Amino acid sequence: MTTISRVEIHEFRYEAPDVAMDRGGFDLVQSPGSRCPISKFAVVIETKDGSRGEYVGLWGATPMSLGQTLMLAPHLLGRDALQRELIYDEFKRALRQYDHMGHGFIDIALWDLFGKRVGLPISALLGGWRKRLPAYASTTHGDRNGVLSRPEQFVEFAEACYAIGYRAFKMHGWYEGNVEEEAATVSALGRAVGSRMALMLDPACQIRTFADALLVGRACDDAAFRWYEDPFRDTGVSAFAHRRLREAIRTPLLMTEHVRGVEPKADFLIQGGTDLLRADPEYDLGITGALKIAHLAEALGVDIEIHACGPAHRHLMAALRNSSYYEVALVGPKARNPLPQVYACDYGDNLEDVGSDGCFPVPEGPGLGVAYDWEFIKRHRTRLHEFG
User: For the chain, which end, N or C, has fewer CB atoms within 10 Å of the first or last residue's CB respectively?
Assistant: First the structure.
């Protein structure tokens, strides 16, 4: 039995250059010269026989998620680190009255521990075969700082992404949800690069009415967008509303980023609320949970698109037949992505890290296959929680 004897949660805080929060205070935009303070946390799990798993949380590692992770962490002590399915099931029940956002970081660290223990990358443990993943550039939100402020600037950025290898591009719109501006940008992208790049739109639930979401959706139809994602302010959770939208437009809907776990996603899909499923190992109860969602999608004959980027995301996608693009988020012409620079190896998820083939590699080392820069984490650490 590989008994868990110690768990550490490292809170840290850093500043991301050249980005800021939009006027709503929740979405990142390009802002040259600004410095945006961001908090994240890392999980370390150790066993009595010397195995160690690590994961630095990225997109979902918010203060809200931290509270749930801290709730679960002491309950790892004394458990068998290899019993990921049992831990998944019991921790899912423990968070049943919450949103499950603190669960995934622990599960990913357990997968890292197992991979290191047996000397194999997680992708190999999942039966993965893909070594390079086609990628799309996923923009920061539209801003009012002169960077991604007008349709032609989104077009210029798409052209720049094409020039360095990307063959797919996703736009995030503006906080105000101005539908004429959103639709005009969709049309401009379609005219300029639609014959050369797969195009996607993610308003991130900013569009305020169904009628406006329909107007933008018809612009996506005319521009032959690959998908239309989380359009309006129901926050992406109404299967009925999105079934109605699907019936009125041709562009496939990509939903369920904001629906947690396999069972609610199955309900959403079966009720006709989406064409494609979203999953994220940080958001959806870890690699264990996201893999269940991938199998659901495959069983029902639909595609699954992995949300956001990171080493766990790459390993998961490497094992999926029905997933098309790796999301390189959030990027723009004036700033790198806002993620912490926590790697002491050549791993990166910046815009310029794309290969000339438009792909990103799957790490080949044991576990997650990355080396974390613990000196960076310790320098920026604000609190250490120790259990065991």
Answer: N
